[in-house]
Amino acid sequence: MFSRLRVVLPWARALATEGTEKKATIVMRLGDLGQDPAHRALANIDTLDRTPSKRKQFEAIKIPTALHNKISSLKLGKFAIRTGNPALKRFQRQDKDADKEVGHPAFLARPAFQAAAAVAASLPPASMREIAFAGRSNVGKSSLLNALVSKPVARTSDKPGLTQTVNFFTVGDAFRIVDLPGYGFAFAKLEKIDAWHKLTQEYLATRKCLRRLYVLLDSRHGVKFIDKAFLDLLDGMASVEYQIVLTKCDLISPGDLARRVVTTSQELAGRPRANPDVLMVSSKTGAGVADLQRGMATALGIPQPPRAAPSSAPNAPSKFPAASVRRSRPPPAGASREFGRGASRFGQASRGG
Q1: How many angstroms separate the CA atoms of 158 and 162, rounded?
Q2: Residue 203: CB partners within 8 Å, gap ≥ 6?
Q3: Is the full-model pTM beyond 0.90?
Q4: pLDDT tens digits for 182-240?
């Protein structure tokens, strides 16, 4: 028979020293005390592993100064303001017109829907340069596509799995944007999900006119397990170069956004087909869209237009006439004499007063 040992925990002894009559004790078998690791940990609670949580580890990531300045200049992330009651803190998204800059004039051309392919045989001919977008279902591919072009052309929805075909959109006569079906959870049958996943793989493996694939990730969640599996698939395709784009950057604080960029860059290290530069956009506010447009133009081989040199003339004519030159229509003659007599009488009255 094993004898019983009464083990008093340190926190229980502290309660007893404070004058509390309650004693927290734990009764263990003497034989189990030396065999069970959990019992040994209870006997010496100070030796417990105090590993910080994932959130604490995420907050401990150091933010590079250059990255912080970039996020501030692009006006990315949500911010808090105080309204009314000083104790009330309300999160307000940025103005929708915060960034109206166009990264390249090629995106000002009229966009149009061209084709929707459900099977490989229905893919349009590879006659134009293409940029494709992929990502998890409901990550914001269609919304970002509408933010890139001058006119919304893609259908958007909050329901995952709305895009079930490979959709092609032309931007003028310069290039095409391809919206690929999302991977992951979707409101569709497994047979359909497998079918469009195979179509996506065949498109990426055989499309010769594809210049770059942009993989969209939700900035609030980062790289998940299914994203890693998709990136592993892309690394096995020698003809595909991809780049990560963090979406929905208006729903995350600037600090967390910077840390998400750091963790995503660490995930891309060692991947041969990945572009190391992580882009950040917000389809709602338009922040970061111009940077993405410039990157797309570079990948497509479209040269940047030359910037207009500032005028060096010392007295360059102004776009609007000077205020002293602008003259209003003269009043009628009667009104002018009436105004003159009234003004003279007012002057005499003021002088007399």
Answers
A1: 9
A2: 120, 123, 132, 166, 178, 180, 210
A3: no
A4: 887 555 566 667 776 888 889 999 999 999 999 999 999 999 998 998 999 899 887 78
Give per-residue pLDDT as tens, 252-300.
999 999 999 999 999 999 898 999 999 999 999 999 999 999 999 999 9
Query: What is the C-alpha separation between 34 and 83, in angstroms, rounded?
Result: 60
Let me know if 169 is exposed, middle or buried by CB neighbors in 10 A (0-12, 13-18, 19+): buried
CA proximity to 283, closest of 254, 253, 251: 251
Instruction: Please identify which residue in the block is written with the tokens 């109206």.
Output: 100
Helix (H, G, I), strand (E, B) or coil at 67: helix
The C-alpha atoms of residue 124 and residue 166 are separated, in whole angstroms, by 10
> Residue 331, by phi and psi: left (phi above 0), alpha (psi -120 to 50) or beta?
beta
Could you count the other beta carbons within 10 Å of the beta carbon of residue 312? 6
- Whole-angstrom distance, CA of residue 338 vs CA of residue 82: 56
